[in-house]
Amino acid sequence: MVITSEFTTDAPTQPLHISLLDKYEYFAKERPDLIVFEIIVLRTKPDPLPKGVTDFEEMLKCKPDFDYRAIKFDMKEDLITLPYSSGTTGAPKGVMITHFNLASCLEMFLFNEKRKWAELGMPFDIVIGRNSLAILPQYHAMGMFTMVALTFMGIQQIMFRKFHLESMLMHIEKFDTTVLILVPAIINQMAFSPLLDKYDMSCLMTINSGSAPLSKNVIERLKERLPDINIRQSYGMTEMSLGCHFSVLNQPDNATGKLTANMSMKVVNQETGKECGPMEMGELRVKGPVIMKGYKNRPEDTKKTLDADGWLITGDLVYYDKEGFLYVCERAKELIKVKGAQVAPAELEDVILGHSGIVDCAVVGVQHEINGEAPRAFVVRKSDGVSEEDIHRFVNERVARYKQLTGGIIFVETIPPDPNWKDSKATPEGDVSCGEF
User: Fold this and answer.
1) How much is the pLDDT for 199?
2) Which of 49, 189, 262, 374 is most buried, with most CB under 10 Å away?
3) What is the CA radius of gyration of the chain?
4) Is the CB of residue 108 less than 8 Å from the CB of residue 263?
5) CB count, 10 Å around CB of 2?
6) DSSP per residue over 63-94, as a string?
7) CA dihedral defined by 340, 346, 347, 351, rounded to 10 degrees?
8) Are 181 and 48 members of one domain?
């Protein structure tokens, strides 16, 4: 994390992943106003650090040599933090989150949690003193915000320097962990790993998932192994501080919660611009007090994402049911266009993960001489006994012809996540194309 002058002025912090220290010039150009007092990092190995960078352990040994003072700031205009978007749809952009944005999101999150406990007929303070593991990176909006929110709830958090599945499982048992906030890439590992049987998970009550849709097959697999656990999904993005749809009791497994208090939403047909009704897919747009001020020094990008009326254009294709539950289908930019028809990678990934011999997968679009684009699957299998023909047969029995894997199947050892623990859509081969299959 880069520590700026936030502690003595009204400047926001600049959270970064340690791997981006060598790209600091990029962020310096993005923020010419940045006054850096100290760069402090949490590291997992004793490699030499760049000049001007301090290890967190060394910082703890220092005695404080300054006094805190009152700071005047505008809640709605001044920034509290400037996280960078994950860059899944282009270069990372600085997301301007104000004090008002973060405070509003925190209030909405706590309201939703209190409502859930009230529906159970239990006092909210029952969570005080319980344990959670802070697995997610603190430079990412989801990791940073949930750390603050759980602290407000009185939940003790055990910080991790680096994620390792067995270490996480061991600490769940050791600290009697009841609540986890994770992302699909980690939950997928839990669902299929034999390590899960090695540790006592009886203390674990709830897993909350965010940052990307969680496969229904993964949910079913994990519930088979941990039948008493609640797995809930929420929806959000960095541009809305954390989220706008939070999980509720008794929501369907593949739903991503309901719209929270003080927020407005609409689902819009991308071709006609008209609002969609229940069960009609369109692009989600959201409005409310948690929406970012804009992108730092990027007015054109801001105009593309925030319309004149303040609606955040998410770029996500969704639908909602008559009960108000939201279902995320795909990012509009990730859709594969086959002969004019649209194919959602997430739908195919869910089908492939239903095969008992598959551990993980990622579907991308590749160029096709005849069809324009074609779906290609990168697959992690349990053993070499699963062949391409097996997977083609399994998928073809379950999807329409234009959704079949005509771009081919490639077996890989792992599906690498990006630094934010979202499954990476970047293939190991870079740009690829294919002919007729």
Assistant:
1) 96
2) 374
3) 22
4) yes
5) 22
6) PP-S--------TTTSEEE-PBP--TTSS--B
7) 130
8) no
Q: According to the model, what pLDDT value does residue 87 have?
A: 46
Residue pair 316/284 in contact by the 8 Å Cβ criterion = yes
| Number of C-beta neighbours around residue 308 at 10 A | 6
Q: For residue 373, which of 350, 404, 332 has the smallest C-alpha distance?
A: 404
Domain residues for the domain of 15 are: 2-72
Q: Residue 6: what pLDDT?
A: 35
CA dihedral of residues 348, 349, 351, 353 (deg, nearest 10): 160
Low pLDDT (below 50) residues in the chain: 1-10, 87-88, 419-421, 426-437
**Residue 193: partners with Cβ closer than 8 Å, 6 or more residues away:** 165
Q: Quick one: 137 and 13 in the same domain?
A: no
Instruction: Identify the domain boundary among 272, 302, 331.
Output: 331
Residues 6+ positions from 48 with CB-CB distance below 8 Å? none
**Which of 124, 126, 149 shows the shortest CA–CA distance to 136?**
149
Runs of H (alpha helix) within 309-433: 345-352, 388-396
Question: How far apart, in whole angstroms, are the C-alpha atoms of residue 220 and residue 205?
Answer: 16
User: Which residues, in sequence order, are bridge partners of residue 312?
Assistant: 286, 306
